[in-house]
Write a structure and sequence with these properties.
Elements (H helix, E strand, L loop, with lengths): L5 E4 L1 E5 L12 H6 L9 E6 L5 E5 L4 E5 L5 E6 L4 E6 L5 E5 L3 E6 L4 E6 L1 E2 L2 E2 L3 E6 L5 E5 L10 E6 L5 E8 L2 E6 L5 E6 L4 E8 L2 E2 L3 E5 L9 E7 L5 E6 L3 E5 L5 E6 L6 E7 L2 E9 L4 E6 L4
C-alpha cells in the first residue's frame, strides 16, 4: 500500500541507575498489566522542562524522575499512585495522568502534589493514561483502565480552562497517548485495543466524525499497541509502538516515512521530541529501563 519506510536504529541515551531499581518488590500494577512479572521499573511519558531537563515516570512504583542533560537522575517524588502521563502547564506546574487518582498537579518548587480532577458525573475514572494541553489552556486526557475490545468503555475528556469537564469521545477500546494537530482542530488518540491511531475533529461542544487515521499491526501481550504519541510542526505523527519495539513516523497524510527500531527491548512506552532539535526523538524503553535516542535525517 505504501513505500517501505526508512529504517533507523536507536542509541542508548541514558539508563536508570541500578541503585534506583525496585526489583523484588510485590507490585499490584504488574499483576494487573504484566501477569505479575518481576520488574524493577516501567519508565514512560518523557517530557522536557524549560531548562532542558527530561522528566519521566515509573508507573508501577509511583515515581517521577528528572534527568539532567548530563545524565544525572533525581528522584523528585514517590507516592501511592500509578503515574502514566506528564505535561507541563505554561505556568510551570507539572500535570500528571495517574491511573489510580485521575489528573494531578505537582508544584515543582514546593514538590507538592494535589488533585485536579478525579471524577466525571460522580464516578471515578477508569484509569487515566495520557494528557495534552491546548494553547488556550484546555487539557485533553485519555481514560483507559482495563478497557479493550472485550469492554470498549474508555474515553477522551477535555477539562476546559474555565473548569468545565467534557466527555468528548466514549466507547474507546484502550485509549493511550493523545496529541493535537498543529491547528488544534483535531486530537489524535492512540487506541491500544484497536492497534490504531484515531482522529477526533474538535467542534463546538465536543468532537465529531471520529475515525481511524492510522492502522497498525503486530505486537503481542497485554500492553501491546500504540503508547505515547506526538506531533511536530509539520503535523507528522510519531507513535511509540509497544510490543513491536519501534517508533513510527507518519507524515500528515498518514503515510509511514520512518521506522525507528529499539536497540534494547520491545516495550516502547513513550516518546518526546527534543524542543531544541525537533528531529531528535527521546524514547522510553520500559523493559530495560532506558532512554533511547534517534535523530531523523533531514528531508
Amino acid at each position: 500500500m505504501y513505500s517501505t519506510p526508512l529504517s533507523l536504529t536507536t542509541d542508548t541515551h541514558f539508563e536508570l541507575p541500578s541503585f534506583l531499581h525496585e526489583a523484588g518488590v510485590e507490585n499490584p500494577w504488574s499483576h494487573a498489566n504484566l501477569g505479575g512479572r518481576d520488574i524493577h521499573s516501567f519508565l514512560n511519558a518523557p517530557v522536557f522542562d524549560a531548562s532542558g531537563n527530561l522528566w519521566l515516570v515509573d508507573t508501577p512504583f509511583g515515581r517521577i524522575f528528572r534527568v539532567t542533560p548530563t545524565g544525572e537522575w533525581d528522584l523528585i517524588t514517590k507516592y501511592d499512585g500509578w503515574p502514566s502521563g506528564l505535561k507541563f502547564h505554561a505556568d510551570g506546574r507539572l500535570f500528571i495522568a495517574d491511573q489510580r487518582h485521575g489528573i494531578l498537579q505537582f508544584d515543582v518548587s514546593l514538590r507538592k502534589l494535589s488533585p485536579v480532577v478525579t471524577h466525571y458525573v460522580g464516578q471515578r475514572f477508569l484509569g487515566v493514561s495520557d494528557l495534552v494541553f491546548a494553547t488556550n489552556g484546555d487539557l485533553l486526557f485519555s481514560d483507559a483502565g482495563q478497557s479493550g475490545l472485550q469492554a470498549a468503555d474508555g474515553a477522551l475528556y477535555r477539562l476546559k480552562a474555565n473548569g468545565e469537564l467534557q466527555k468528548l469521545v466514549g466507547g474507546i477500546p484502550g485509549p493511550t497517548g493523545v496529541a493535537l494537530s498543529v491547528n488544534e482542530e483535531t486530537v489524535l488518540i492512540g487506541v491500544a485495543g484497536d492497534n490504531a491511531i484515531w482522529r477526533a475533529p474538535l467542534v463546538e461542544g465536543g468532537a465529531s466524525r471520529v475515525g481511524r487515521a492510522i492502522q497498525l499491526s503486530g505486537g503481542f501481550g497485554a500492553m501491546a499497541g500504540p503508547g505515547g504519541i506526538a506531533t511536530d510542526s509539520d503535523d507528522n505523527v510519531f507513535v511509540a509502538h509497544n510490543g513491536m519495539g519501534c517508533v513510527w513516523m507518519f507524515d500528515k497524510r498518514g503515510e509511514p516515512k520512518y521506522r525507528v527500531d529499539s536497540s534494547r527491548g520491545d516495550w516502547i512506552s513513550g516518546l518526546t521530541l527534543d524542543p531544541s532539535d525537533p528531529r531528535t526523538i527521546l524514547i522510553t524503553e520500559a523493559q530495560t529501563g532506558v532512554l533511547l535516542e534517534a535523530s531523523l535525517p533531514m528531508y
